[in-house]
Amino acid sequence: MSSDLARLQQVIGYAFKDADLLTRALRHASTTTERTHSNERLEFLGDRVLGLVIAEMLYTRFPDEDEGPLARRFAGLTSKDALARVAVTLGLKNYIRIQQGDAETEQRSQSSITADTLEAVLGAMFLDGGLEPARTFIAKDWECLITEDLSAPKDAKTALQEWAQARTLGLPNYDVVDREGPDHAPTFTICVTVTGYAPQFGQGSSRRIGEQAAAEKLLLILETLE
């Protein structure tokens, strides 16, 4: 086992029985022509593991909240932004195997890559040791995100929708106006419009993230007008 793998296992607090699983979890799709040899399948699995554990944590932690607030908390805690924040605290980017390319593209997609890799690590952890190690890891490393704001959060799209509906302006409209970058690291440009106000644009590594970014920009402008 390499010293890097040994060090990462100390950081995440779990020793793999099958170190090859961790190696694959750190292998970005840009390093192989066979997508199934990259970490994408583990990322798919890890996303589901994270969702189950976070849902269970929220169900237990907030017994008086109904589905709406729980769903908003869930969306925030399982978002790419949340994953990227946890990945930064772990220093995960230092362990990822990725083909070096265009510096601007790499910088733009760095948070998305680290977030996806963290999901892959969770998937690998689940395959290697079952749900309990993943649950322990998530409970520890997501705790600060849960306790940052104990009031149920509203994501930007929800807040913008409620703002528009309260003023009988109808629902905000989101359109993809551009998509650039390689398949493994795309950037979406989204335009959001609300009747009577200038459109705003946001970018993200997925349509959902771009829509949130556009909604945040429009909300900031709307707040200055009130």
* Main β sheet profile: 3 strands, antiparallel
Distance between the termini: 59 Å
Per DSSP, what share of the residues sits in E-state strands of 2 or more residues?
A: 5-15%
CATH architecture of the largest domain: Orthogonal Bundle
Number of domains: 2
The whole-angstrom Rg is 19 Å
Q: What do you see in this structure?
A:
By secondary structure, the protein is mainly alpha-helical. The chain folds into 2 domains: 3-148, Ribonuclease iii, N-terminal Endonuclease Domain, Chain A (Orthogonal Bundle), CATH 1.10.1520.10; 156-225, Double Stranded RNA Binding Domain (2-Layer Sandwich), CATH 3.30.160.20. It is built from 10 helices and 3 strands; from the N terminus they run H-H-H-H-H-H-H-H-H-E-E-E-H. The chain has a 3-stranded antiparallel β-sheet with strand order 1-2-3, with helices on one face. Helix 3 (40-61) crosses helix 6. It is globular. The model has no long low-confidence stretch (mean pLDDT 88).
